[in-house]
Each structure stands twice: as C-alpha cells, then as structure tokens.
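User: For my dataset I need records formatted as: sequence, then structure tokens, nothing else. Please produce one.
Assistant:
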Amino acid sequence: GELDDDIPIGAPQGDEGPTAERLAMLSGTALFASISRETLAALVRSATVEARPPEQVVFEAGEPALDLFVVVDGRVSMELPGAAPFDLGEGQIFGEGCLLESSRRLSTVRTRTATTLLRIPRAALEARLESEPDLDRVLFELLVRRLLVNLLAT
C-alpha cells in the first residue's frame, strides 16, 4: 500500500503527532530503510506517541520488556548496571530487548529533556514478521548492534 503524509500515529488527544512520513524519514536513515512502506505503515498505526517531561523514567531494569521505542525528538539516557550512562537522540531506537521472548529490561531509561517517543508494541512487530522477511533481519541487526554497544560500555 501507498503511504500518505496524513496517516496519524495513535497520539494524545488534540495532537495528531508525527505522521507516517515522519517515521519513515527518521527510520529511513538506516535501520528500517529496507522495510516495505506497507509494513512501516502497519507499525505506525499500532504505535502510540508519548510526550514525556525531562528526567522521567521510561522503564526500569527488571521490568517486562513489551515495547520498542523510537526517539522522535529530545534525548534519553540509557543506564546499564556497571557502565557509564549514554544518551540516545532523534531517530534512535531503544527497548529492543522486547524482541526476546520472556525478556526483562536490562537497563533503566529516562528522559534527559522534554522528549517525544514512539512506542511500538512487541505484538505489532511479531505480527509483521511473517509477511516481512526483511523485518526479521533488521530487528536482529538492531539487537546485535545494541549488544555490542552494551559490551563496549562495560
């Protein structure tokens, strides 16, 4: 299917939030570049936009990992036990631990600034895996990259 500029993402009332095109622009830079527009649109429709104030915990280590997040704007800090915290900004993805079955969060993530996040439920990702072979590869690459970053940080 063709992706229109005006497909809104599930957003707080009174705010249409980023469009599917905005998500495509953010994620098109690297990670989701090979994903079909139809799959991207399906993920966008299942996603919600969260406006978060500075210094708010997004999730804590040990919590169940149920969602993947994209930083639409702002900055978050990822805190791993035994490692220096590091920041993620616009277009970057975190929470990929949700891709592992029965996974719990390994890190605590908090906003550093006022931040807009896109929350994509694990169920939405899993639902698209069968029809989008590239999605499996992309998500695997994301897990490998983050594991390497985490290893280097410790």
